[in-house]
Amino acid sequence: MTWRLDASAADFEESFKALLSTKREAAQDVDDTVRDIIADVAARGDEALIDLSKKFDHIDLAQTGIALTKAEIDAAEARVPKETLAALDLAHERIAAFHERQRPQDLRFADDAGVELGWRWSALESVGLYVPGGTASYPSSVLMNAVPAKVAGVERLVMVVPAPHGVIDPLVLAAAKRAHVDEVYRVGGAQAVAALAYGTKTIHPVAKIVGPGNAWVAAAKRRVFGLVGIDMIAGPSEILVLADKTANPEWVAIDLLAQAEHDESAQSILITDDAAFADATAAAVERQLETLSRREIATRSWREFGAIIVTKSLADSIPLADRIAAEHLEIVSEDAEALAAKVRNAGAIFIGAYTPEAIGDYVGGSNHVLPTARSARFSSGLSVLDFMKRTSILKCDASSIRAIGPAAVALGDAERLQAHARSVAVRLDQRGA
Amino acid sequence: MTWRLDASAADFEESFKALLSTKREAAQDVDDTVRDIIADVAARGDEALIDLSKKFDHIDLAQTGIALTKAEIDAAEARVPKETLAALDLAHERIAAFHERQRPQDLRFADDAGVELGWRWSALESVGLYVPGGTASYPSSVLMNAVPAKVAGVERLVMVVPAPHGVIDPLVLAAAKRAHVDEVYRVGGAQAVAALAYGTKTIHPVAKIVGPGNAWVAAAKRRVFGLVGIDMIAGPSEILVLADKTANPEWVAIDLLAQAEHDESAQSILITDDAAFADATAAAVERQLETLSRREIATRSWREFGAIIVTKSLADSIPLADRIAAEHLEIVSEDAEALAAKVRNAGAIFIGAYTPEAIGDYVGGSNHVLPTARSARFSSGLSVLDFMKRTSILKCDASSIRAIGPAAVALGDAERLQAHARSVAVRLDQRGA
């Protein structure tokens, strides 16, 4: 049954804690298999990719080639309806425009002591983008991962996507073409992650791997982390809607269902200060559920993880929202702006009745790769910064080191790091060591 | 023997690859032990901390208390020489001034379609700082981790530090006091990490855990990642010096040794375009090694991982420097600025003869927590941003959703996410679903 909590109930804190600590994903113990797959690819390269793709994806890469040709990508694009391509174009344009604003500034300055300090941002040389196959293969996610990488200036953006029985969603390839992905390989699973991290004859290694994937992909990313960078490990999606009685229960219901239809582990939560609105929305959810093509998935998600919480006021809901730290937070109220300003933990906030979360999934322009599973308490959505790194810069001269060097010598001595202290002291003395 | 490579040799590429792929740390298999420790602390809280600290740190926390009192911290500070406290004060002031410049900007704007977009940065609510005990207990690292957290606005900054046989370095406590650390607990190892992640009666949980530690601490951080945020997993330290014959070989030698004295796994590499300078520096290293109190550690590091590479020109060294992607890069040449501008991968660059790396360790002001083990290819040093997170903001009205909504409906349909498409469509229709 969908959770129903009343914030004024005596056992509310206990129930709310239980809701927060619900495990939504069964941990799959795939780590040993993944370790073996990675070792195989690291040792045998393309041959391992060919063998593993035969086994898992029922495709003979020795026949098809591992890399997709430009002609294949163009042919796939030609199969996509014009209207869909136009929508992809609008999405691409808006995502690029938003992310252009995230380019960071370099800095260089001299302080009062004459020490020059600063930093310089540079793009990663190469990035691998994992794209899932099958029903979780979303062209919008290709744009959301690839566009910030290209805005950052990544020169080599490599996409891997499984081709079960030879099939890749043409929309995914059309999105890759729009986002200026440089190389596309028809390989998936832990073997694709291993190829990106260790490199094979065909797939050169990258500096960082991003993109969503199943338990095998996630386990492989965790394993290669350190050798290459990785993005966050995405969990199942979630939405929290804060709404008062001015909201349209039918609209809120479909927003809750848009999250629930993703995945049986997705979670949709409504917090409202109006019990009648809560009832009306619950009823609307039940009615609309019946009309959805993905009603089985959405029903399971809503029954098991869905929740409606009634509070005294929406202001009272803010501390709860901060504890939930939702990936997506929709606020529908005349006070939406003021309430949004008070929220600390959320991946993204969607303000007002005319901002359904799905707008942000596709064409809003901001990134839809957002922190899940309460990680908005400590992390942010994907951005241009995830595809750049900062090198700090320090420069002293004979005068400025005399201003600050003695303190460095004192601290080096205090930490019993003699060579540290001496490396500064010899410059103060202006003589050899 | 220290590596010696000649970039003009026929087998150079092979030797350079061997140097790059040298394993500097034996992987310690502590994962099972760490899993049990974490489960114990999650289940038994403070009692587990007391039992484990008896076993590992030979201290009875039931007697001493888990938390340090303000009086204990003040008493420790009183034992630190005034000169050292003054050096800590200068370091604190300079680190704070530099990091103040890293505070990010919020953004809010309306685009041509009338869609409002933006983001808002906020500080993490709480952060745990792990400080190692024994010889790896560095007050400078306390400042480098704590100051950016406080500049970011973290309200609750919690430090954990083991107290083997009851002892904590008073300098570490003096640094914590200066950096406005809010709570200090005398507990270390995987049990301290577990307490920060899961919380106990005494230690409330935090949102993120930062700071260096041994193999147990690193394994524990990897395990709790997801439940809380973690910083990078630090590997052994390294320096790359690019120097031409204008450099002072004695100065370069002591800089190489300042890295080598950290740890037997530390790595010091010199690249120069002058074979005679290479020889002179090698000889200076040997001479100075003998004079160091930590000569055994430094000798082992220099013999096993130290390297001298001779190239045709320093410009030729840049691609090598990018492949090494050193944590610390020192450039000593009249062209130092121009060479630095060409480097892509480095944690920090120290420019010119008067900027020994140790200046950056203590009082330069920039952060000394930097990416190790070639991870400067994809990551950055610690900054204020590591203690903040970004919430994106999206707001449409009835007019702007009409401008961009149809494309969202098209993409929702194309991805077969019917509720996604419908949640936008109902707002376009201006009616219920």
From TrEMBL, chains A, B:
For this record, an example GO cellular component is: cytosol
Task: List positions binding NAD(+).
Answer: 130, 191, 214
The prosthetic group or cofactor this protein requires is: Zn(2+)
**Is Oxidoreductase one of the keywords UniProt gives this record?**
yes
What EC number(s) has UniProt assigned to this enzyme? 1.1.1.23
Per its UniProt entry, which superkingdom is the organism in?
Bacteria
Q: What is this protein called?
A: Histidinol dehydrogenase
Record organism: Methylosinus trichosporium (strain ATCC 35070 / NCIMB 11131 / UNIQEM 75 / OB3b)
Q: What is the lineage of its organism?
A: Bacteria, Pseudomonadati, Pseudomonadota, Alphaproteobacteria, Hyphomicrobiales
Q: Which gene encodes it?
A: hisD
